[in-house]
Specification:
The protein is mainly α. 66% of the residues lie in helices and 0% in strands. The longest helix has 20 residues.
């Protein structure tokens, strides 16, 4: 999904959550948008370029379903760790809300356009790396 949609939804959620979290609501925006930094990290590692512009165009215009991408912030193991952190550090709840909205939007797009988005099973590092030989 294009980052502008994540940004718009995150801005709206930031405004809605301000009465509950005060300025900590900015963590909603950070979580909802910056989670996609893993796309850029994947591009740096696999394409050997630091160009943000090239990474953006590559991710926007290429077919995601045909790539074996490892997105470290889009996997289930990251989510388990985040839930545990929120349990112990409730101040991180707005960050979790932003991350959850981002993933909800990504999964909605997957179910709408299965041919252009990675299968959600790709969001498990355990499945991808530890269990692939079985």
């Amino acid at each position: 999904m294009d980052i502008k949609y994540h940004f718009f939804v995150s801005i709206m959620l930031t405004i809605i959550t301000f009465p509950f979290f005060g300025w900590f609501c900015l963590l909603v925006l950070i979580g909802g948008v910056l989670i996609d930094i893993d796309h850029y990290l994947w591009h740096i590692y696999n394409k050997r370029t630091l160009s943000v512009k090239k990474a953006y165009h590559f991710m926007k215009h290429k077919n995601h379903a045909n790539r074996n991408m490892t997105l470290i912030f889009h996997n289930i193991e990251f989510w388990i760790a985040k839930v545990i952190l929120v349990f112990f550090f409730p101040v991180l709840l707005p960050l979790f809300i932003g991350l959850a909205s981002h993933m909800t939007m990504d999964l909605f797009i997957y179910f709408k356009n299965k041919h252009t988005h990675p299968n959600p099973i790709a969001y498990s590092l355990t499945k991808k790396y530890l269990l692939k030989s079985k």
